[in-house]
Amino acid sequence: MESPVTDPGTKESRVTVCPNCGRRNRVPSEADSTPNCGNCHHALPWIADAGDDDFARIAERPGPYVLVDLWAVWCGPCRTVSPALEQVAQELAGEIKLVKVDIDRSPGIAARFEVQAVPTLLVMDGGEVIARQAGAAPAAALRSWVRGAVADREAARQQKE
Known about the structure:
With 161 residues, this protein is an alpha/beta fold. The chain has four helices and eight strands; from the N terminus they run E-E-E-E-H-E-H-E-H-E-E-H. The chain has helices at residues 55-59, 76-91, 107-112, 139-160, and strands at 6-10, 13-17, 24-28, 46-50, 65-71, 96-102, 120-125, 128-134. The protein has a five-stranded mixed sheet with strand order 4-6-5-7-8. A three-stranded antiparallel sheet has the order 1-2-3, with no helix packed on it. A hairpin with a 6-residue loop joins strand 2 (13-17) and strand 3.
């Protein structure tokens, strides 16, 4: 079933429906700034697929915080949490980027992050993991977890200044 937020595109981009005006926009997997609607300029949900070959380019660049979904096709809870993650990406558009990694197709990423269970979720800042959890959760709990990780990181930055 197709998500109301995004249509599968290519690995380089996805077609995303603007939550503000309903216009369809092609959103690249990697860019220098967060995506905005070409029609109304509202922040768009940024959802991308990544693998062993392009994870660094897509998920570790400076920019918004990155929520990484390490999942597998055969995993029931992964299919359950995917719509919740897309909802969080829509609600936090302009603040986070959701990057999905199929661990069966990306064994290097699975090994790097020592994935023991799927789904495994990471919040990253410039390539550094700042929060990690395994298992599915409802959108409200995921949103709270992401916001908590981001708030903790921002507070730590302010203490350094």
